[in-house]
Amino acid sequence: MHGWTFRNREFRSMYVVGVILFMVVLPLLSIGNDRFIHHASAPLMLLAGKWFVFWAAGIRQSAAGVWQFFQPQFTVEGIFGIRSNDALPFVRELGIANFALGVVGILSIVRPDFVLPVAIASCLFYGIAGVRHATDRQKGVKQNVAMVTDVFVTVVLVTYIVNAVEH
Question: Is position 109 within any domain?
């Protein structure tokens, strides 16, 4: 990955685009595809749970986990603003956790009974991360995008969870 670091402007732009795609655009397109192209009769909240868990929890967290494991400097310096290598082992551990939850989120596409538990875990993760990003005093574009998308996905997942528990 020579030349692709968190300092590279193109890479930062790709990061922002990727987060927006996985957390907002692709879940909404998938819901629209199911609803309007395939005429799915499933309730809208069921489709929202299915696709936000698959994309935001599954694909996004798996990708983040792989990146955190193999390129922990991006998270340490680019997200948390830490200028020391001391945190690298912790970020790699976070990457393993993200990857593990992400795999279960991906598998939810073939195991619908995985959707609610992954939605709960991801809702907690994104909700707490969103609050953490909101309280950061020095936010850049990446942190603002992460904050907005984390809060958006949290709201969607909370709505899905409440709906699923009530039914």
Answer: yes
Domain limits for position 98: 9-166
In a domain, 4, yes or no: no
- Mapped to the 3 state alphabet, what secondary structure does the chain carry? CCCCCCCCHHHHHHHHHHHHHHHHHHHHHHHHHHHHHCCCCCCHHHHHHHHHHHHHHHHHHHHHHHHHHHCHHHHHHHHCCCCCHHHHHHHHHHHHHHHHHHHHHHHCCCCHHHHHHHHHHHHHHHHHHHHHHHHCCCCCHHHHHHHHHHHHHHHHHHHHHHHHHHC
Helices 141-166 & 44-52 angle (0-180, nearest 10) = 130
Residue 100 lies in a domain: yes
Does 38 reside within a domain? yes
Count of domains for the chain: 1
How confident is the model over 115-166, as pLDDT tens digits? 999 999 999 999 999 999 899 887 888 889 999 999 999 999 999 999 999 9
Single pTM value for the model: 0.90
